[in-house]
Amino acid sequence: MANRLEKYSDNIQGPYFVDMDCIACDNCYYLAPNNFSLTLDFDHAYVMKQPINPQEQEQCLEALKACPVDSIGYQKQ
Fold this sequence. Notes:
Blueprint: E1 16-18, H1 27-31, E2 36-38, E3 45-47, H2 54-66, E4 72-74
Antiparallel strand pairs: 1-4, 2-3
């Protein structure tokens, strides 16, 4: 389970986040390319844009479920 206290600082503010357990597997980017990205050095993923429509919301939820290390979190604010 992702830990908001250990989220990367490059996540855009909002309910979805990526924490420091990320292994940069790229699953989230493939499932939700409008919302997730990898750092330039491919060290980790981060949320570059929070979902703004039902399709993006569904893709982000799929990315959260597909994360092999449970590094993607969701917490209503």
